[in-house]
Specification:
316 residues; alpha/beta; Rossmann fold; 2 domains; four-stranded parallel beta sheet; 13 helices; binds phosphoric acid mono(formamide)ester
């Protein structure tokens, strides 16, 4: 594996999950792989978990790590080709990316959807420039349309907590005050569709996700019906795909409550975090033993470490 931007980059999903779980038991077992290797983490957008867990994963593998927060630390970067750069962005990605590539062996990049153009976002214009110009492997730390390190950690977590071989996993839209990208639900659905779990997607009308992620999955528009018998409830807000980036509903009837959790098969509650309490999910659910959000965040270290191990083995 050279780059990691989606589940399709993994040689084998089952083996990858096994590897991550093995690494979790013995996190320092592959320190030799990262000796004298450097990872640069580039953030165009904010982060708590991704920054710290990916840094920890790289350090566990013996790598050196440098972090660049583009907005705070670097020059503002122009991302469009062919523009006259007479504005407030003094450097172009076209130079910045290969320069960064000369300082490291692996680049991690976070660049969310910009919501200026659905086409630009869904063509992953920033991530793909990194892949084209970096000259070193690139790991997506959440791009415009996918968050693969998160989905990998979600899958590890479900494997750890599932009580039956083919659990019912429900992803539900929930309300939020701001317009959020579709990367997490797109990616979660993409990864879950590679398993033999029963996957149910529920959201209000108008929040249909891109066909390339949904495939032949049908939406259950009745959230309570979707919750019946579920083993895992994965909550997430996203903005509309068709009316791109729009908030169509703030309906608090979609908040995950303990009443709704009682419809499930003692389901565990999951969310990628950060989570808006009493918008997405009530305090009562988050503070109960149903919630496994912290375990899920912990697994971000091991998803990143498994990915980096596979990349380091290829560049040795
Ligand atoms: N889940 C996740 O990616 O968290 P951060 O945005 O804090 O990195």
């Amino acid at each position: 594996m050279r780059h990691f931007t989606s589940v399709y980059d993994l040689p084998n999903l089952e083996d990858a999950v096994k590897l991550a779980r093995e690494i979790k038991q013995n996190p320092y077992g592959y320190q030799h792989l990262g000796k004298n290797k450097t990872m640069v983490l580039i953030f165009f957008d904010s982060s708590l978990r991704t920054r710290l867990s990916t840094q920890k994963a790289a350090m566990n593998l013996g790598m050196n790590v440098m972090v660049l927060n583009v907005k705070q630390d670097g020059w503002s970067l122009e991302t469009e080709l062919g523009v006259v750069m007479d504005g407030d962005k003094p450097e172009h990605l076209r130079e910045a990316i290969p320069v960064i590539g000369t300082y490291c062996d692996v680049i991690g990049v976070r660049a969310f959807a910009r919501f200026e153009s659905k086409e630009d976002d869904y063509q992953e214009k920033i991530l793909n420039q990194f892949i084209e110009f970096a000259g070193v492997p690139v790991v997506s730390m959440e791009a415009a349309t996918r968050h693969p390190l998160q989905s990998f950690a979600d899958l590890i977590t479900i494997e750890e907590f599932k009580k039956r071989p083919k659990p019912k996993v429900v992803i539900t839209w929930a309300p939020h005050p701001k317009a959020l990208p579709q990367a997490v639900p797109n990616s979660f659905i993409e990864w879950m569709r590679q398993t033999d779990y029963e996957l149910v997607v529920t959201h209000p009308e108008g929040y249909e996700l891109a066909p390339e992620f949904m495939g032949d999955l049908k939406v259950e528009y009745d959230q309570k019906k979707a919750f019946e018998g579920a083993d895992f409830i994965y909550a997430k807000n996203w903005s509309a795909y068709e009316k791109y980036g729009k908030i169509l509903s703030r309906d608090m009837d979609w908040t995950v409550t303990m009443e709704k959790m009682k419809l499930t098969n003692n389901a565990r509650f999951m969310h990628c975090l950060p989570v808006r309490r009493n918008m997405i999910v009530t305090d009562e659910v988050l503070d109960s033993d149903r919630s496994i959000v912290v375990k899920e965040a912990e697994n971000r270290v091991y998803s990143a470490q498994a990915v980096l191990k596979m990349i380091l083995e290829q560049i040795k």
